[in-house]
Write a structure and sequence with these properties.
This protein is an alpha+beta fold and 237 residues long. It is 19% helix and 33% strand.
Length: 237
């Protein structure tokens, strides 16, 4: 693994809780070290196979909902482009205010197209927080490393995919690695045989250091959604 830029980590990512600048709407993330992501099962998609917009709810460790998210794109891209489709995804709080948005362009997902790897940007109130970039290798997407960059384009940490992301009765873990070691993980949880076989609705448990800067918590949180599409969204073409 190539070295990660350490300056952004020491300057921002592990700032003390009382000293970090918190973007508006993200204050709640400052007190969390775990977020549960639950995708809502669509009965229409379940019985017809017609790809609908993905919907999610985000909860704290006690199961209390604090954000919801919904994929925003057109019907044609969902049916024709499968899991590589472009989308916007706003995150709204319980009052209906948008606090986060992720933007994913249409990109290939093949080792034959190293110039068109997966990427995604994450915004808060229109301000860029950072981005996620798939690093090219011969085995994409298995065993792929993803570089997470801040708003200035500096690589601040990486997310490492397992060599075998298949879920056969167990969870699938994507490690979040910083310059000084592990910062957390994105865990896709096993839902049971029936749910796994008949739906592509996924549940994730995202963990991070409690004192991590909320901007980097938001980046890790957003990365879970790109991982969901790359690895676990079934192609319904």
């Amino acid at each position: 693994m190539e070295p990660i830029t350490t300056q952004p980590m020491t300057q921002f990512a592990m700032a003390p809780m009382g000293g970090q600048h918190i973007p508006p709407g993200l204050e709640y993330l400052a007190q969390l070290d775990q977020v549960l992501i639950q995708q809502i099962i669509s009965l229409c998609e379940l019985f017809s196979g017609w790809e609908v917009k993905n919907k999610y709810i985000l909860k704290n460790s006690m199961g209390q909902e604090f954000l919801s998210a919904k994929e925003d794109n057109d019907c044609c891209s969902r049916q024709c482009c499968g899991n590589i489709r472009a989308f916007e995804m706003p995150f709204v709080d319980n009052s209906g205010a948008e606090v986060l948005r992720i933007s994913r362009p249409l990109r290939c997902n093949s080792c034959c197209t190293p110039c068109c790897n997966q990427e995604m940007e994450i915004f808060s109130y229109g301000q860029l927080l950072g981005s996620m970039h798939q690093e090219w290798n011969f085995w994409m997407p298995m065993g792929t490393t993803y570089s997470i960059k801040n708003a200035s384009g500096d690589s601040v940490f990486k997310i490492v995919a397992p060599c075998c992301p298949c879920s056969c009765g167990s969870d699938v873990v994507f490690e979040v690695i910083g310059s000084e070691g592990s910062l957390g993980s994105i865990r896709r949880t096993w839902k049971g045989c029936c749910t796994e076989c008949f739906t592509d609705a996924d549940n994730f448990c995202v963990t991070f250091d409690l004192h991590l800067d909320v901007r980097y918590k938001a980046l890790i949180l957003g990365a879970a959604f790109l991982i969901d599409f790359i690895y676990f969204e079934k192609n319904q073409q």
